[in-house]
């Protein structure tokens, strides 16, 4: 029988969902039904949310688990119902922080994902536009603006990793696919030579690569296992030969790839 | 004098950073120096992290604040130093969850941003590829696969919102720019007619729009305030006329736009 988990917030609910998700993954033999209740920013909505949680408790015959990041204390109290286990993130952590910093918190709703700073916003949007206009080997003249250039065979997760770096961290990431034409010479494609220090490689297990390519172009030479083995082995040899660090995307999520690359290259976030 | 905040994690540190950030934004008159220490996954690295925190305490003459999501208890203990205020998300929340669920947590490092499920991973990557191949009015035949189609004038934040929906939620989002050619007819562009129920609009304050366009094409007609006023007013009139709901991106972050759109349309995440 699944347990129900609610994510209740007076704004986007992103923090509540992330916190709750991190915790719930520690109980992987429990099946959770997840219900997001974002934008609970009036007493009426808070009462509706409370009613929704109570209904679920009655239907499940079991206490729902409520992850909440309500900043407003009066709304927060309404959503705390006896029929649920409420894990209230702000309630627990704000007080020790207030003590440590010697001041009261501003209790401002939804500050963390607001558009507090136009400069920061622009940094992010510019990075996203940069990633899109420098995707898949498209290399206009402003490549020297790149913070990093990801290289690797087609379908090694370069594009989503670049977009994640841009959206989450405001980092300008370009990507360039290594294709069979780039192998054999044992040197980087000419276009990339001036930017050697900005290069970072992605690689992938050939079986997984073949599986991914097969869904895209079934039965093609592009997707054939022996071709994938060849491309991956040549790409890795090239990166080792020219001294470009690389990482496998086979067992890493986009988040892990992005943060690992930042960690290894020393890049730091441009936005928060 | 800035206070130092550390984000310590045995994996990506994304959760620690987000939770810490949410809390720190409640103290906006304090200047925080933020230091991420991700991938602290061995006793040696934990000791280095502890030393780093102690050094900072000595340099600042003030306790650093440490936000941590260490799952492994032995590593967690090493990073808890007397010289800092440590706010440990797992320590505080895991225990009530274990009680409620009647079982021990698996104490698995970094589960939440791992590539636990290949299907889910594919959903996300497919959504990202969909967003890129359906960006800015590029509309191949598979538009009926779209979960949502964002419309709005150029530079109203359609593209980053689509990418966020894809990356974070696995939602297939296309976008189509409303241009001066689309105004006057008081009807949707012909291409969009079959997908009316999938449309959602973004609008923006004309002053802000002019400012954004000015950075892109300084002195252009495209960026001129009167042109921006005209385009925004026509686009909003069109959306009202044909009954497409819309939202202003002027004071909303990408996260807020994406979650608000999901909330209003009833779309739910495809991934976690």
From TrEMBL, chains A, B:
**InterPro entries assigned to the protein according to its UniProt record, in alphabetical order:** Kinase-pyrophosphorylase (IPR005177), PSRP (IPR026530)
Q: What is its EC number?
A: 2.7.11.33, 2.7.4.28
| Transmembrane parts of this sequence | none
Which reaction is this enzyme known to catalyze?
Answer: [pyruvate, water dikinase] + ADP = [pyruvate, water dikinase]-phosphate + AMP + H(+); [pyruvate, water dikinase]-phosphate + phosphate + H(+) = [pyruvate, water dikinase] + diphosphate
> Coiled coil: which residue ranges?
none
Top enzyme class: transferase
Give yes or no: UniProt keyword Kinase: yes
Q: Keyword annotations for this protein?
A: Kinase, Nucleotide-binding, Serine/threonine-protein kinase, Transferase
The terms under GO molecular function for this entry are: ADP binding; ATP binding; phosphotransferase activity, phosphate group as acceptor; protein serine/threonine kinase activity
| Keyword Transferase listed | yes
Concerning Pfam families, the annotation shows: Kinase-PPPase
Q: Which HAMAP family match?
A: PSRP
Family per UniProt?
Belongs to the pyruvate, phosphate/water dikinase regulatory protein family. PSRP subfamily.
What this chain does, per the entry, is described as: Bifunctional serine/threonine kinase and phosphorylase involved in the regulation of the phosphoenolpyruvate synthase (PEPS) by catalyzing its phosphorylation/dephosphorylation.
Can you say what this protein is called? Putative phosphoenolpyruvate synthase regulatory protein
Q: Which organism is it from?
A: Silvimonas terrae
């Amino acid at each position: 029988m699944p347990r129900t988990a609610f994510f209740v917030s007076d704004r986007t609910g992103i923090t509540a969902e992330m916190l709750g998700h991190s915790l719930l993954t520690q109980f992987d033999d429990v099946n959770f039904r997840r219900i997001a209740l974002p934008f609970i920013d009036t007493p009426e909505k808070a009462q509706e949310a409370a009613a929704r949680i109570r209904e679920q408790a009655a239907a499940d015959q079991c206490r729902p688990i409520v992850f909440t990041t309500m900043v407003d204390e009066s709304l927060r109290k309404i959503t705390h119902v006896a029929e649920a286990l409420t894990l209230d993130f702000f309630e627990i952590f704000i007080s020790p922080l207030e003590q440590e910093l010697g001041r009261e918190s501003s209790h401002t709703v939804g500050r963390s994902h607001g558009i507090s700073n136009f400069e920061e916003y622009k940094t992010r949007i510019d990075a996203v536009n940069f990633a899109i206009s420098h995707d898949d080997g498209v290399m206009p003249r402003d490549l020297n603006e790149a913070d990093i250039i990801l290289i690797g065979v087609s379908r090694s997760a370069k594009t989503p990793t670049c977009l994640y770096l841009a959206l989450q961290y405001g980092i300008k990431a370009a990507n360039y696919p290594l294709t069979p034409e780039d192998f054999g010479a044992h040197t980087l494609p000419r276009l990339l030579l001036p930017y050697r220090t900005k290069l970072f490689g992605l690689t992938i297990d050939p079986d997984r690569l073949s599986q991914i390519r097969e869904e895209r172009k079934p039965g093609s030479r592009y997707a054939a296992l022996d071709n994938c083995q060849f491309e991956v082995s040549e790409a890795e040899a090239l990166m080792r030969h020219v001294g470009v660090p690389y990482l496998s995307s086979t067992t890493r999520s986009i988040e892990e790839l992005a943060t690992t690359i930042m960690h290894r290259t020393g890049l730091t976030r441009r936005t928060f």
